[in-house]
Amino acid sequence: MNYKPPKTDSSTIEAHSALSIPSIPLVELNFQKFLEMKKIEKNKDKKDKDKKQENEERIYRANS
């Protein structure tokens, strides 16, 4: 019994390879977006922290 691989035309091969291996620019773009989101998140955390501290100072001054 001889093994015969399934027949595929070139379009199937191209589609498969395009799906299985992301292009480098796409990976870089996703990474860039990830870094941007982390930066935004970090800034938001800092703003929240500053606002909380400001409120605590305001309450402290009001109680003094």
Automatic annotation (TrEMBL):
Residues 39-64 are annotated as: Disordered. It comes from the Eukaryota. This is Uncharacterized protein. It comes from Meloidogyne enterolobii (Root-knot nematode worm).
